[in-house]
Task: inverse folding
């Protein structure tokens, strides 16, 4: 008899996010509330709000990307911004990795306020946009500095738009992270990575039922096995060049041994025990935009200190040693 058959309790109060926990104890992520976009074909003039299709104008210096360095969903856009050379066009606000009951806060900034938006909590921007908003206030969020409104917290579209809609402001020689000719293969690949890996670790970690946890665990490691094979004969997921698919896989891999293996019980094996995935992850880590945007201190303190249902003692593990990310990878 498997463990799943022996025990499948799913007490609602055991859930880290009760409203996002199904009757079988499975984690069901909330939809993204704000889905406007910044696009090249917005009919709005610079300085104006969105057009009637929710498209805001591309404007350097206008929008502020609010992130937590702990968050893998936000990390995508931080890496893309670096790779594409959009640092001057889109400013970055970094929240405290520790949330209190009021959510993400700007306590790392002087006076506890974001110097550009003038707010102390990200929830203020959410409520300024929708005063009835009741879901989790999440990062990443792209905020309009003119009105203080949230343009989007739709993180997958946000990162694709950095590639495809902000092209006129890319640095010379910036990579094409979402090449048109690869999209038919990339889209399903990224969807599998999302379902089984990026969100898969959360489905394992936030499950409150044994079966839900084991299903997520199995899907996660089955998918990692497939990706391990895929990376045997190619440097990156789509071949010789880095794409958005690599960005998305990296943000989970870099957190794997430090957090997911232990905190989310994804412990069939560590990342360091996969030959190709571990070398691939190190290869990316040692590439500009990847390792230099990783903050293991924020990552560890966020997960281990804010998920109090999973880690009630709040002890933050000391390891693993981050220096091993700098060891030679022998790829490419
Ligand atoms: N927007 C997505 C994904 C982004 C997301 O979950 N970000 C996390 C950090 S990794 C967050 O902001 N969580 C806030 C909270 O849990 O209250 C969602 O709503 O699930």
Result:
């Amino acid at each position: 008899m498997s463990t799943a058959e022996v025990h499948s309790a799913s007490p609602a109060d055991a859930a880290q996010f009760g409203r996002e926990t199904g009757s079988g104890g499975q984690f069901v992520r909330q939809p993204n509330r704000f889905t406007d976009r910044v696009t090249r074909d917005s009919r709005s003039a610079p300085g104006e709000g969105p057009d009637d299709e929710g498209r805001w104008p591309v404007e350097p210096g206008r929008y502020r990307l609010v992130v937590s360095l702990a968050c893998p969903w936000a990390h995508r856009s931080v890496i893309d911004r670096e790779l594409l050379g959009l640092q001057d066009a889109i400013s970055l606000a970094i929240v405290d990795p520790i949330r209190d009951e009021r959510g993400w806060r700007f306590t790392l900034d002087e006076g506890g306020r974001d110097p550009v938006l003038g707010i102390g909590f990200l929830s203020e921007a959410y409520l300024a946009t929708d005063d009835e908003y009741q879901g989790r206030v999440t990062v990443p969020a792209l905020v309009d500095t003119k009105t203080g409104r949230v343009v989007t917290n739709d993180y997958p579209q946000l990162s694709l738009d950095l590639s495809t809609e902000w092209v006129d402001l890319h640095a010379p020689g910036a990579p094409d992270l979402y090449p048109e000719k690869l999209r038919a293969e990339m889209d399903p690949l990224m969807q599998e990575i999302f379902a089984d890996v990026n969100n898969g670790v959360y489905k394992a970690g936030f499950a409150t039922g044994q079966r839900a946890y084991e299903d997520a665990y199995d899907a996660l490691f089955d998918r990692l096995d497939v990706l391990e094979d895929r990376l045997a004969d190619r440097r990156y997921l789509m071949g010789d060049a880095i794409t958005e698919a690599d960005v998305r896989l990296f943000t989970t891999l870099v957190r794997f041994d430090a957090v997911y293996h232990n905190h989310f019980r994804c412990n069939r094996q560590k990342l360091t025990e996969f030959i190709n995935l571990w070398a691939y992850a190190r290869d990316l880590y040692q590439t500009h935009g990847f390792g230099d945007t990783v903050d293991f201190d924020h990552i560890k303190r966020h997960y281990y200190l804010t998920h109090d249902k999973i880690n009630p003692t709040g002890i933050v593990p000391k390891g693993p040693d981050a220096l091993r990310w700098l060891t030679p990878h022998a790829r490419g």
Summary: The domain at 37-169 is CATH 3.40.30.10 (Glutaredoxin). The radius of gyration is 20 Å. The CA atoms of residues 69 and 295 lie 6 Å apart.
